[in-house]
Structure formats: structure tokens, C-alpha cells
Amino acid sequence: MQALPTYTKTYHTENYPAIHPTRPELSTAGKVVIITGGGSGIGPKIAHAFATSGATKISILGRTAASLLSTKASIESQYPGVKVLTFVADISNQGAVNHAFESTKKTFGPVDILVGNAGYMPDPAPLASTDISEWMRGLDINVRGNLILYQAFIANSSPNPTLVHVGTAAANFPAMPGGLSAYAVSKLAATKMTDYFAFENPNVRVMIVHPGVPDTSMNEKARDVGVVMPFDDIEMCANFMVWAVSPEAEFLKGKFIWSNWDVNDLIAKKDELSASDLTTGLLGWP
Fold it and tell me: How high is the pLDDT of residue 1?
């Protein structure tokens, strides 16, 4: 496959020192962290990365109790000072999401960092023949679910919190073969909704991050219909989330970035980033 275009000179597919969560500059010590989709895909690795970076109060949400408890046990055994709360919650279930955030606030304190990692890829199919209920399920989870998530977050957050919405490059790409319209459309809509959330809540530091292409069951769906891209190191994908909430990435507030992009190259571009760079809009206008 042709190499993907890149905003930075260096395009990473493997973990590298600048984003390693043991760096003191990336410390999340003292922060209350919530991660959705915390039991599967890249979620457990993201939770581990935050524990490595010093966070000792972590809540993870997911649809399966067993996978959440496995993540909790793995983290707490590796980091005895870390406490992990687990909540069985589909993000489209408002009651379950509200309970998770309210319980986290009651136990740990106001939420400082939210990594909105949960998402759903509807079964790929052409628009002319897709099952409409399955197609709309993408909107229900990826858009309505994140709206529920954002409302719970803002009601239970600290005064100046940080939100990382885990987006996808599918929202950046032109239409392509494979029948991925339901996923691309719902994730693009979620991206625009996140833009509005950032605009309406200027006290919140918001970023949208394409996590790369880790070897997960979600990406296997795309591969099954012929959309084949080389897998990225899942450790890189997870560790980048810690860098994204660090002071080093403060200048990327409101931006859509890829975890493959070299962070030192991004920092070097800090002064030349325009208001429209790395945002959603219409190419060629204004």
C-alpha cells in the first residue's frame, strides 16, 4: 500500500523515547483519569500507559466485566499504588455512564483527564444494500454515545480538564472501497461534535487523536473487506495519549492529530501552526 501522507517529517509505526510515559515531563501524578473502552482494543494499553506515567486514580469503562477486571488486575499487580475502578457501561447508556462518572468523582475526586476511546465499527457494506439498523448503530454509539459521555464529563470534571477524543483517519480520507461509510460518517460526525464541545467549553483542553492502526478486532473488520494497512505498534498508540495530555502538547488544543506524527516535529511547527491547520473544514476554502 502507498505510504500515508504525513504532517511531520518523521512518521512513526513503533514506540519511541519522546512519548515514553516514564518521562518526568509527561507525568500524570495526582490526576484523576477516565478511559472508555478500557477493557479491549487499545484501551488496556492506554490505562497501563497512564499508570506508568504516575496516575494512581484510574477509572475504566467497557461493555464486558471480565475484560475490565483483567485490565484492573494487571495494572494493580504491576503498580501496587494504583487504584483502578471498573464500570460495565456502553457509552450509549446514559444511566450507566452517569453512574461511572459520579462514582469516580465521589471516590477519587473531580475528573482531570478523559480519554474517549470507546467506539463501534458497523459491519461494512455498500450504502445501497447495508442493513440500515446496523448502519445507524454507528451513529448511536459514536455520536450519541460521545454526547452522553461529554455531558457526564463536564458535570463531574475539575475546573480545567483535558479531553482526548480517539478519532480516526477514516474521517480525513476520501471515500474508499470496502463499505466503511457507516464508520467514517459516524466518526466524522463525532469529530465535528467534539469541535463544538471544545468551542462551547473553552476551559477544557480538547484534542482529537487518530490512534494509528493497532492490531485490534475493530481493525480486523476493515481488513476482512480488503482495507489493508500495516499495523502500528500498540504501545506507541497508547503512549501517545499520555504525551497528548502533557504540557508539551498544550499548543495542540483544538487540533486533530495522528499518533504516528513525530512529537518533536510537531513542537518544531508550533509557531507556524495557523488557526485552520489540523482542524476539520473544507479544503481550498476560505
Answer: 43
